[in-house]
Amino acid sequence: MNIGILGLGTVGGGVVNVLNKNQAQITRRSGDNINITHAAVRDTTQIRICPTEDIKLTQDPFEIINNNDIDVVLELMGGTGLAKDLVEQAIENGKHVVTANKALIAIHGNKLLALAKDNNTHLLFEAAVAGGIPILKILEQGLSANQIELVAGIINGTSNFILTEMRNKGRDFGDVLKEAQALGYAEDDPTFDVEGIDAAHKLAILASMAFGCELQFNQVSTEGISKISGEDITFATELGYTIKHLGIAKKLDGKLQMYVHPTLVPKTHLLSNVDGVMNSVLVKGNAVSETLYYGAGAGAEATASSVIANLIDIIKGTVNHDILGWKSLKNIPNCNTGDIESIFYLRLLTTDKLGVLADITATLANHNISVESVIQKQIDQKNNAHIAIITNLTKTSELNKAVAEIQTHDYIQEDVKIIFVKTLN
Ligand SMILES: NC(=O)C1=CN([C@@H]2O[C@H](COP(=O)(O)OP(=O)(O)OC[C@H]3O[C@@H](n4cnc5c(N)ncnc54)[C@H](O)[C@@H]3O)[C@@H](O)[C@H]2O)C=CC1
Ligand SMILES: N[C@@H](CC=O)C(=O)O
Ligand code: NA
């Protein structure tokens, strides 16, 4: 089998290194020799994390796509422009494609998968979701007897790394982000990580696999971790929670809910103890009940593990391409985000005057929202009170109305912070 790689950075370099490290057993498991014959790179002279003596480096990726001797293309360069054109043309040229590119699959996957089916080739993307955790295989095969009720997880390693370092070491957001970039965890554009876009790409893929529907990336309600402050982390800890960035997809009354956002998770829940770059995905099936998967969500060799697993399946001929019936998939109607029910954390900065807390709780009560816990911190130098509230279960739309009303009072000093709280039971 001759393989061409597009992009020899963190993941591409990791693939070459893992293939070298585990050559004997990968050959045994796939039943064939895997030869990386070509790699497309931007700079042929750059020092890389992997050896390149036996690989022909080219600056023209189309040289790989149009090479009749190459059987499988690994798209590991990222982006949705050139990468899409290359993947499309590779498929049209009859090549199988393995990609780690969640943006590409989330945005163009419906079209590309249909194209692959029409051309009798495979387009596989295990590395695109939760890095080294074989979560797509679990949904496609291990849990195929179930109707999936819920998929929820920590699916962006960079965000989890930042939140963990902020909580454990009181480190500054920007400083930790720089470290995540240096470690090769972050996307080329790190706003994709910290604004939740990368997690939304992954959730769209997970939901499509879990519920057997088309990819509906535009329907994911998305919020990142960029507005989480040290004060939120401290309040959450005191209230018995950890702040995690979660992606959640579930089907309720025939409608699909997909949202990624910072979430307060009870300290006692397993997900709350998933730290650093680790990812974890909880899947609830109607036969198996709750299952939980844990592993590195980013990094060279962990991601390479998933890319190579797809490659081995292609070589062995064990890809079960029809399990999702891609041609017949239909959209599932999406639920209005206002209808999502949740417990909420509110953080307020108010002037410290008599009756403020009573007024806030009364406004919430007018919207049928009761207060489960409240912490009021010492008054700061500006005579302001710092308040954190945990509500009971309520509809997002009702909570938003109550907060909008609270926000109009002149005792409110800044926008009220709202964060979802999930018990995940
Ligand atoms: N880094 C990680 O831990 C993970 C990354 N991914 C995905 O894997 C893909 C690759 O990510 P990384 O390896 O981290 O990125 P990277 O930036 O380390 O590597 C990408 C490589 O592609 C090369 N490249 C880009 N455009 C090119 C072009 N036109 N011609 C030739 N070479 C080109 C770049 O020069 C770079 O060396 C992305 O889609 C990313 O989202 C997925 C899971 C984990
Ligand atoms: N930037 C991503 C890399 C893996 O998908 C992340 O941090 O999770
Ligand atoms: Na994976």
Automatic annotation (TrEMBL):
E.C. code: 1.1.1.3
Pathway field: Amino-acid biosynthesis; L-methionine biosynthesis via de novo pathway; L-homoserine from L-aspartate: step 3/3; Amino-acid biosynthesis; L-threonine biosynthesis; L-threonine from L-aspartate: step 3/5
InterPro entries: ACT-like_dom_sf, ACT_dom, Asp/hSer_DH_NAD-bd, HDH, HDH_cat, HDH_CS, NAD(P)-bd_dom_sf
UniProt cross-references to Pfam families, sorted A to Z: ACT, Homoserine_dh, NAD_binding_3
Residue positions binding NADPH: 102
UniProtKB keywords: Amino-acid biosynthesis, Metal-binding, Methionine biosynthesis, NAD, NADP, Oxidoreductase, Threonine biosynthesis
Active site per the UniProt annotation: 202
Binding site for NADP(+): 6-13
Protein name per its UniProtKB record: Homoserine dehydrogenase
Organism: Ruthia magnifica subsp. Calyptogena magnifica
